[in-house]
């Protein structure tokens, strides 16, 4: 599968040195949803839902990257999946989690990511029927692009892994990526 032919959209600001910027490097024609592009997901209005749905229909890869507030990533996963089902789009949804999901006493942030993982895995189980594949990637911290620190994963490495997952013939419902520290 030619990665440039994919129609990718991603949460996050591509002008910052994080995952969205790395997505923009690999997929220059990707679309981005964040406050900077007019998508304030803290208020899920019917207008915002409609604009998000219109964008989802134009794409076949959704990288659900940004934690915005508890439950928002799960909402975006569900909305994208529902929209693609309604429009018979056979796409790929990549959800970005955290290794904090393994915590014995998870924070509200980690609990939200756990909920995202649960929904992602449930939808992955349905991929043979729906044609929509989902993966949940637990990440052990992130660096900025170009950082020489070994404390987190380089966003470019994460995005290259995402491209590999999408191009794979296998379903890869759950992965974990840690830094080389």
Biggest sheet layout = 6 strands, parallel
Give me the Rg, rounded. Answer: 15 Å
SSE arrangement, N to C: EHEHEHEHHEHE
Strand ordering within the main sheet: 2-1-3-4-5-6
User: Shape, please?
Assistant: globular
Distance between the amino and carboxyl termini: 33 Å
* Beta-strand percent range: 15-25%
Reading off the top of the CATH hierarchy, the class is best stated as: Alpha Beta
Structural class: alpha/beta
Q: Unreliable stretches, pLDDT < 50, 5 or more residues?
A: none
Task: Explain what this protein looks like in three dimensions.
With 181 residues, this protein is α/β, with parallel strands linked by helices. The chain has one domain (3-178): Rossmann fold. The protein has six helices and six strands, in the order βαβαβαβααβαβ. β3 (61-64), α3 (72-86) and β4 (92-98) form a beta-alpha-beta unit. The longest helix has 18 residues, at 108-125. The protein is globular, with a radius of gyration of 15 Å. The N and C termini lie far apart (33 Å).
What is this structure's SSE topology?
Elements: E1 8-11, H1 19-26, E2 31-33, H2 46-57, E3 61-64, H3 72-86, E4 92-98, H4 108-125, H5 127-130, E5 133-140, H6 155-167, E6 174-178
Parallel strand pairs: 1-2, 1-3, 3-4, 4-5, 5-6
Helix pairs in contact: 1-6, 2-3, 3-4
Structural key phrases:
6 helices, alpha/beta, Rossmann fold, single chain
In short:
With 181 residues, the chain is α/β, with parallel strands linked by helices. The chain has a single domain, classed as NAD(P)-binding Rossmann-like Domain (Rossmann fold, 3-Layer(aba) Sandwich), CATH 3.40.50.
